[in-house]
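Reminder to self: tokens first, then the designed residues, so the page reads top to bottom the way the pipeline ran.
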């Protein structure tokens, strides 16, 4: 396994005259890894929902010394529902495509993403990872100073981005959404409007039942508490990697503890996922044992990644 001690951009490891990076696995190996499982997907989803239930219960009824850890546990689980939605959006969590789509929409509802929009956005990100002018994720600039880094970790820019994007999509303002095919736009607008309608209906119902602060107390506040954790994780996926189309150098795998891998649906194995997006979450650890030596960026722990970020800021 190749473990790097730096997160600065590395030179491309594959030239145009060598094998294609996605030929690392044989067709037979890839077919073995690609097997989907409704059972494993449902077990992981139930485990994630159980974590939410435990955290929410502690936050709702526990004494202060349990309520605050419960809030962190619940908020982190809510924010990391993004990782569940990501897996569902790839349609790799379950063998049943409709089950993937339904679960993606529900996970997006919890994490404030719209899965119908995100699926198209993310497909473009995979097609043009780290390619300037084509990868939509590069529209959110990486921090170049300690102040920008800390600002992103608060999650405030994310909240503003979600407010603006959901509003514009619901109004049908999609001119800058180059990653949305024309045929999909009405579906995306409709899905976003329904999602915002669900939030509104919950707010009205809870107010009518005498709990006007329900959405804030049991959704917005916990989600805000969990967002810095998600921001911390997502910055490590491509930050400091090469800005080119080489999947062996433009994405990082971060080795981390099992509880985080569980709630992230094994997305810390991100280089493996980008090299072969068809591999479901439950097969990524096994794929890592075969593929890890081919990657430029395999790092032990998110702390190591972020220490390198901060060291680079100090040098600016």
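Designed residues (316 positions):
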């Amino acid at each position: 396994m190749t473990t790097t001690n730096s997160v600065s951009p590395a030179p491309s490891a594959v030239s145009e005259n060598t094998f294609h990076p996605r030929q690392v696995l044989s067709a037979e190996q890839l077919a073995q890894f690609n097997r989907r499982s409704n059972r494993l997907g449902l077990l992981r989803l139930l485990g994630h929902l159980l974590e939410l239930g435990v955290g929410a219960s502690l936050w709702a009824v526990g004494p202060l010394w349990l309520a605050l850890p419960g809030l962190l546990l619940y908020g982190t689980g809510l924010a990391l529902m993004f990782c569940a939605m990501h897996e569902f959006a790839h349609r790799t969590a379950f063998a049943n495509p409709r089950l993937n789509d339904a679960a993606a929409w529900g996970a997006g509802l919890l994490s404030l993403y719209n899965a119908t929009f995100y699926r198209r956005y993310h497909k473009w990100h995979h097609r043009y990872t780290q390619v300037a002018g084509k990868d939509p994720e590069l529209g959110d600039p990486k921090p170049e100073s300690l102040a920008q880094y800390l600002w992103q970790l608060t999650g405030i820019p994310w909240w503003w981005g979600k407010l603006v994007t959901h509003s514009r999509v619901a109004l049908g303002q999609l001119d800058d959404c180059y990653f949305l095919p024309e045929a999909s736009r009405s579906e995306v607008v409709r899905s976003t409007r329904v999602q915002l309608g669900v939030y509104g209906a919950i707010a009205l119902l809870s107010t009518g039942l005498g709990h006007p602060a329900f959405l804030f107390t049991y959704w917005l506040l916990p989600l805000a508490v969990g967002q810095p954790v998600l921001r911390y994780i997502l910055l490590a996926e491509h930050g400091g990697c090469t800005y080119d189309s080489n999947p062996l150098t433009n994405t990082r795998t971060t080795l981390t503890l099992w509880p985080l891998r569980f709630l992230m649906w094994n997305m810390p194995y991100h280089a493996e996922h980008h090299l072969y997006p068809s591999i479901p979450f439950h097969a990524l650890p096994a794929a890592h044992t075969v593929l890890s030596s081919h990657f430029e960026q395999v790092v032990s722990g998110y702390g190591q990644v972020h220490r390198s970020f901060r060291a680079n800021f100090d040098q600016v």
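Residues 21-315 form one domain.
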